[in-house]
């Protein structure tokens, strides 16, 4: 005996101004009677502050009160009976009333480390005290509505960056310091979520052979706690663009596909913000690197050189 | 049987004694024979004809036409080529073209797959892996304890990544068999996971497989690994394609809603399918490591068709991403996989191929220029690496030039050539790339860009072995394309200049090998001399190894084989003369079979086309022959192996022509005898030639008698040195005949004596089983035939020699087969009969004035001569019967008896005595042979006939 929700779209993506359509499917061994079938849409921003990041006071650590985006409950069937076997009950909900105030902003679905924005659809088949009620929950994905979308193309300007032994703020291997290296490239500061992050990179010179060049996509989640803002930077995805000692002067493409649920449009809300950064990390071949197991790439090491740039993600049409 | 009363008194005397056991001399009368009349009687009628029966315009051919067209039997070479040979009709060609255009896309994909499979097989065969394979721990993690693979925590995307990364590079060893087995296991796991619906797991395992290709410490095993891994990736790609296609074609419940066309567009695809496709690409896009990410995207490359119509951008991007692969071997094979996968897409431009070549070129440059790198690549031999990178390059270059329209190919080819030079400036194109490119370029491009190509070759980096190979290849290509003279001249000038800087004989030879054809074809003598001079310079100062020897042999063979038709013979001779010194020098330094092969070739070429007259050439060839002869005799080979050589040398001797310089020719023969001391066949030829000289000289002038003597002396001296006694005998007889013809009786006597001596030793020494009795009989018969012409010696007696012969034979009659004795006797009977005639049946020939008089002139009307003949014949007759009785085998006995009977009856008058003997013989034959036997029959008939004739004559007398 089970109930499940099936949405009309297989990718479960909807915009707030669209109708949330689908059907409720019940699989019953025998017919049951109920007091009503209820659908609830629950959108919330869940915040938590994890320990371990510098400057966070003990008292602040913990889960904060989630911010409700919208909660709506609709009864789609009054009390009655459902026959045995498989029954499909279609439904259609509006998420956001047109003309409603913009106080309830529908943020995009986001699964982050500290912040997660979720939209859940729950169905309840109320059955009274003696019987266990049937229910099911399904997460669906909200994307920004059309009116708010940016026009393509997103700012086409690419930012030039240089990575040399002089641009590094952390200590480097002596051979690197003396021999030097120079890596240049271009990367956009603004990127559309539907396209990939495209740029280029050239290793112009290097004293030591290169082991790997990686592009790290980082998210910065900031939460307002009291009057303090607690920020956490964590790694979303790593993409290697050079494996081994590449030819000098050859232009390598930077091509990073943005993962869907782990990224969203850059959000700057009052109580929280979600921002992104892109980090280019070059690791050189050295004995030391072989000794250390792979560690957090954001930690500066003697054999690493890096450059971090801010990245604004936007949703486009 | 004749009645006693009818016999004459002489005959009576004979018959009275006929039964006495004592051998009494019988009176034998030889039949008189008129040889001229007999010859006329046996003359075959001849009818003159106008047409040659073998000529093609004969009327016979028209008759045969009809038959020809009907039967498809093998072509009769003697028949006129009147019937047309069936050629494939034009219809076939047309249908082939039609068939080609009918090939749909699916067929071309099939073709592509088959070619790829063949190519993979070739890869595995070319680089057979060794027993054990060194793997780094990346691979070990995958290949080793598979079950215990821990998923990393936190974010699900990390599951696709290698948690340990490429840090740990310890090397372990497993066998290649284990590796292959493990990969097969993984393939099955992927299939099972997919079948169970667990697509993500299949992907994960495939990523692990792809990650194995990062490990290039394997070297020799890498191509095999590549074939196995790409096999698995192709499988995954097909499965993903099928899944999405199914999504388009079928509904959830399995009902088919549509059939996807071969050339579908993006608009035909429903959004659900697009979503799934997009998901796959996103999942693959999230793989951290570059190499597996590229390989996986290539594996599902055809699925881009569901999302975009034109995938040119995708291909460009993938090629650009490949530049991030620092390992040249991994990069080269990744390019190879890209080229294969892109060909699965329906429409694609070929510019990407050029980009691939350029990129591989770039990767190879640092390897070939011997810079040391600090990672563990410096442990590998760079040459092994380059060798391993060749197949991908070949494949890609082949793809550039396959099934293209002419214009497109030229454009691409030109573009490539230009690009290479632009990209690399003057001096850094990789010779290996150039080599493969040069192999595949169409001939027009080679011709039109030859100077540019020369520039590239000259400046190409890399060890010089590649450069000389490239020069060589250019030479071959020019020869194929039949380049004009000016171009050839220019090219040769440059090539010779460049090659002259090579110290190494091997490299120089390779270059020469490439150009010798074109030089010969265009009759460029000076260049040939320069090239050969270069070889001589480099060859003569050192020991040549086997490879160089082979190259040298091939170059010289080419030069020698150049003459194809008669007109070129003179040229060859001139060439040989001009190059004689060079040749001699070069051949001197060669050794062994190569040298022999060249020398034999020279001799073959020289003797093929007619007489050799030029003294220098003769001298040269004699030296060549000498070296061959010495070479053969120094190695312990069986006689049978020397036959081709001996034949060749004989032929050489045959072909030498001195015209009327008799003395010179004889001197040559003498020299040959000294040079080819152990070649019997050659010595035979020499004897023949000496005899021939005698005949020619004597015909030319009477004053050359003394010359004739020296020739005969030469023959006399040479014959004993020939090993086979039978051959000696034949030669003796031949020489004796020649001597007779020239009127040199003492020589002929001496020769006949030597022959008999040889015969004696032959019969006496050899055991009867080894002896070739029939050949000896043959010789004896021939001797008897010769003796007819020999004037008898009145001091020793006319029958001196036949008596010797008979006693020689009869002395050993107990051990020898009977036929030896019988046939010798018969031969002697015939000889005596011929001697008894008024005119001998034949004369030695030669000039009439020089001829020796035969017995018919010497003993004309000499009754004692005739008596001697008759009495000797009688003695023979008596012995014949006894001799025949010695024969044990009845059949043979019967035959011998009949033979003897025939012989006697044909030359001796069949009177009573004779007839008695003949009847005795016939009686001897009767129990042995079937009375119906034709020989028996004819013999008895003949006998009766002869008897009757003789009796008629008697009665008339």
From TrEMBL, chain A:
GO terms for cellular component: cytosol; endosome membrane; retromer complex. The keyword Zinc does not apply. Its main location: other. It comes from the Eukaryota. It is found in: Endosome. The keyword Ribonucleoprotein does not apply. InterPro entries: Arrestin-like_C (IPR014752), Vps26-related (IPR028934). Component of the commander complex that is essential for endosomal recycling of transmembrane cargos; the commander complex is composed of the CCC subcomplex and the retriever subcomplex. Component of the heterotrimeric retriever complex consisting of VPS26C, VPS29 and VPS35L; within the complex interacts with VPS35L. Interacts with SNX17 (via C-terminus); the interaction is direct and associates SNX17 with the retriever complex. Interacts with SNX31; the interaction is direct. PANTHER family: VACUOLAR PROTEIN SORTING 26 RELATED (PTHR12233). Component of the commander complex that is essential for endosomal recycling of transmembrane cargos; the commander complex is composed of the CCC subcomplex and the retriever subcomplex. Component of the retriever complex, which is a heterotrimeric complex related to retromer cargo-selective complex (CSC) and essential for retromer-independent retrieval and recycling of numerous cargos such as integrin alpha-5/beta-1 (ITGA5:ITGB1). The recruitment of the retriever complex to the endosomal membrane involves CCC and WASH complexes. Belongs to the VPS26 family. This is Vacuolar protein sorting-associated protein 26C.
UniProtKB/TrEMBL annotation, chain B:
This is Uncharacterized protein. It is found in: Endosome. Keywords: Endosome, Protein transport, Transport. Its main location: other. Residues 1-21, 54-81 are annotated as: Disordered. Belongs to the VPS35L family. Transmembrane segments: none annotated. One of its GO terms (biological process) is protein transport. It comes from Beta vulgaris subsp. vulgaris. GO terms for cellular component: endosome.
């Amino acid at each position: 005996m089970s109930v499940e929700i099936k949405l009309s779209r297989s990718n479960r993506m909807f915009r707030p101004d669209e109708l949330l359509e689908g059907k409720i499917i019940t699989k019953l061994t025998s017919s049951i009677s109920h007091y009503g079938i209820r659908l609830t849409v629950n959108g919330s921003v869940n915040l938590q502050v994890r320990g371990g990041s510098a400057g966070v006071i003990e008292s602040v650590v913990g889960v904060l009160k989630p911010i409700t985006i919208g909660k709506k409950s609709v009864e789609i069937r009054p009390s009655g009976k459902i026959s045995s076997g498989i029954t499909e009950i279609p439904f259609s909900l509006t998420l956001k009333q047109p003309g409603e105030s913009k106080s309830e902003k529908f943020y995009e679905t986001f699964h982050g480390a500290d912040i997660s924005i979720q939209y859940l659809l729950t169905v309840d088949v109320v059955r009274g005290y003696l019987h266990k009620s049937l229910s099911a929950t399904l997460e669906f994905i909200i994307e920004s509505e059309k009116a708010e979308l940016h026009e393509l193309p997103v700012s086409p300007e690419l930012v030039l960056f240089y990575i040399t032994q002089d641009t590094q703020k952390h200590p480097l291997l002596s051979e690197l310091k003396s021999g030097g290296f120079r890596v240049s490239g271009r990367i956009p500061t603004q990127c559309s979520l539907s396209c990939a992050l495209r740029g280029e990179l050239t290793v112009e010179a290097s004293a030591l052979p290169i082991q790997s060049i990686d592009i790290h996509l980082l998210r910065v989640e900031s939460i307002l706690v009291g009057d303090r803002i607690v920020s956490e930077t964590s790694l979303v995805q790593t993409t290697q663009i050079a494996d081994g000692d590449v030819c000098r002067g050859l232009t390598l493409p930077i091509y990073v596909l943005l993962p869907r649920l782990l990224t969203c449009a850059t959000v700057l809300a009052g109580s929280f913000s979600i921002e992104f950064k892109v980090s280019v990390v070059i690791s050189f071949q050295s004995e030391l690197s072989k000794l250390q197991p792979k560690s957090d790439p954001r930690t500066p090491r003697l054999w690493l050189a890096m450059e971090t740039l801010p990245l604004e993600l936007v949703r486009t049409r | 049987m004749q009645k006693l009363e009818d016999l004459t008194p002489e005959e009576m005397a004979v018959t009275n004694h006929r039964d006495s056991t004592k051998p009494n001399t019988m009176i034998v009368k030889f039949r008189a024979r008129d040889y001229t009349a007999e010859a006329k009687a046996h003359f075959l009628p001849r009818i003159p004809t106008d047409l040659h029966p073998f000529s093609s315009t004969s009327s016979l051919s028209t008759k045969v036409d009809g038959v020809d067209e009907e039967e498809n039997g093998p072509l009769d070479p003697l028949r006129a080529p009147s019937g047309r040979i069936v050629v494939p009709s034009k219809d076939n060609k047309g249908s082939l073209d039609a068939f080609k255009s009918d090939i749909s896309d699916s067929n071309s994909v099939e073709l592509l797959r088959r070619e790829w499979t063949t190519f993979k097989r070739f890869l595995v065969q070319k680089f057979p892996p060794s027993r054990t394979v060194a793997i780094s721990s990346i691979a070990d993690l995958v290949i080793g304890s598979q079950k215990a693979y821990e998923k990393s925590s936190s974010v699900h995307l990390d599951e696709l990544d290698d948690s340990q990364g490429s840090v740990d590079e310890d090397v372990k060893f497993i066998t290649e068999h284990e590796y292959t087995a493990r990969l097969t296991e993984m393939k099955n796991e992927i299939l099972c996971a997919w079948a169970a619906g667990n697509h993500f797991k299949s992907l994960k395992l495939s990523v692990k497989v792809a990650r194995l290709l990062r490990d290039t410490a394997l070297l020799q095993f890498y191509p095999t690994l590549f074939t196995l891994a790409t096999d698995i990736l192709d499988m995954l790609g097909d499965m993903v394609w099928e899944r999405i296609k199914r999504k388009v074609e079928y509904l959830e419940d399995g009902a088919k809603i549509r059939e996807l066309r071969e050339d579908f567009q993006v608009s035909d695809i429903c959004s659900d399918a697009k979503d799934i496709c997009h998901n796959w690409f996103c999942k693959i896009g999230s793989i951290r490591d570059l190499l597996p990410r590229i390989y996986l995207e290539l594996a599902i490359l055809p699925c881009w068709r569901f999302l975009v119509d034109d995938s040119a951008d995708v291909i460009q991007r993938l090629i650009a991403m490949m530049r991030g692969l620092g390992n040249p071997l991994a990069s080269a094979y990744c390019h190879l996989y890209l080229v294969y996968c892109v060909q699965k897409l329906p429409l694609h431009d070929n510019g990407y191929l050029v980009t691939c070549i350029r990129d591989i070129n770039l990767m190879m440059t640092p390897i070939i220029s011997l810079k040391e790198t600090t990672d563990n690549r410096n442990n590998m031999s760079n040459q092994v690496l380059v060798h391993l990178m060749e197949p991908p390059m070949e494949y890609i270059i082949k793809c550039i030039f396959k099934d293209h329209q002419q214009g497109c190919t030229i454009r691409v080819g030109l573009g490539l050539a230009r690009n290479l030079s632009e990209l690399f400036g003057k001096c850094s194109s990789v010779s290996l790339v150039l080599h493969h490119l040069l192999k595949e370029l169409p001939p027009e491009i080679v011709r039109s860009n030859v100077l540019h190509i020369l520039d590239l070759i000259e400046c190409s980096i890399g060890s010089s072995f590649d450069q000389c190979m490239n020069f060589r290849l250019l030479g071959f290509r020019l020869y194929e394309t039949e380049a004009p003279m000016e171009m050839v001249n220019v090219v040769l000038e440059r090539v010779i200049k460049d090659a002259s800087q090579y110290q190494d004989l091997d490299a120089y030879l390779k270059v020469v090998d490439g150009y010798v054809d074109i030089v010969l074809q265009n009759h460029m003598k000076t260049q040939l001399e320069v090239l050969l001079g270069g070889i001589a310079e480099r060859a003569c100062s050192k020991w040549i190894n086997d490879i160089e020897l082979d190259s040298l042999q091939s170059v010289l063979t080419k030069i020698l084989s150049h003459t194809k038709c008669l007109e070129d013979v003179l040229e060859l001779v001139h060439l040989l003369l001009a190059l004689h010194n060079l040749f001699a020098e070069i051949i001197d330094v060669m050794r062994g079979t190569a040298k022999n092969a060249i020398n034999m070739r020279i001799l073959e070429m020289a003797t093929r086309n007619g007489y050799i007259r030029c003294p220098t050439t003769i001298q040269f060839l004699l030296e060549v022959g000498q070296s061959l002869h010495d070479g053969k005799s120094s190695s312990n080979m069986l006689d049978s192996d020397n036959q081709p050589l001996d034949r060749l040398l004989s032929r050489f001797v045959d072909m030498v022509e001195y015209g009327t310089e008799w003395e010179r020719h004889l001197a040559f023969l003498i020299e040959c005898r000294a040079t080819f001391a152990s070649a019997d066949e050659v010595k035979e030829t020499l004897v023949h030639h000496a005899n021939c000289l005698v005949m020619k000289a004597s015909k030319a002038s009477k004053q050359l008698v003394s010359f004739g003597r020296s020739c005969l002396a030469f023959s006399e001296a040479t014959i004993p040195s020939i090993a086979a006694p039978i051959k000696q005998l034949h030669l003796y007889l031949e020489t004796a005949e020649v001597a007779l013809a020239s009127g040199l009786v003492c020589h002929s006597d001496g020769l006949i004596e030597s022959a008999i001596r040889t015969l004696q030793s032959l019969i006496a020494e050899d055991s009867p089983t080894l002896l070739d009795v029939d050949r000896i009989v043959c010789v004896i018969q021939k001797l008897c035939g010769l003796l007819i012409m020999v004037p008898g010696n009145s001091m020793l007696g006319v029958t001196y020699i036949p008596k010797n012969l008979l006693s020689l034979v009869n002395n050993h009659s107990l051990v020898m087969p009977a036929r030896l004795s019988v046939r010798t006797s018969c031969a002697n009977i015939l000889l005596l009969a011929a001697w008894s005639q008024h005119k001998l049946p034949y004369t030695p020939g030669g000039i009439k004035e020089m001829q020796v008089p035969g017995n018919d002139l010497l003993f004309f009307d000499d009754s004692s001569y005739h008596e001697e003949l008759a009495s000797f014949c009688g003695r023979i007759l008596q012995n014949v019967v006894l001799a025949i009785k010695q024969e044990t085998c009845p059949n043979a006995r019967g035959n011998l008896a009949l033979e003897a009977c025939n012989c006697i009856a044909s030359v001796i008058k069949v009177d009573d005595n004779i007839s008695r003997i003949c009847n005795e013989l016939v009686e001897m034959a009767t129990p042995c042979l079937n009375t119906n036997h034709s020989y028996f029959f004819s013999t008895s008939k003949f006998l009766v006939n002869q008897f009757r004739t003789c009796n008629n004559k008697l009665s008339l007398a």
